[in-house]
Amino acid sequence: MTQSTLDRLGEDKLASHAPLKRLGDDEDLKGITLLYASNAGKHITGQWLAVDGGVSVITGG
Asked: Fewer Cβ atoms within 10 Å of its own Cβ: the N or the C terminal residue of the chain?
C-alpha cells in the first residue's frame, strides 16, 4: 500500500474493513519469509500466499 493511499483514506478507515481490524506491518511478513527461505518450504514452488490479514478473502482478490 502506498503512503498516498494511507494519507488519503486514513489508516483507521482502511483497517476497519480488514477482518483482523488492523493493517499489516513488516513483522507480519517474517513468518512467510522464513518459510520460503528455509528447508521447511523447499518443496513449495509457484505459489502465491496472501499475507493481508484476510482482505483478499472478502474482496475476492
From this structure: C
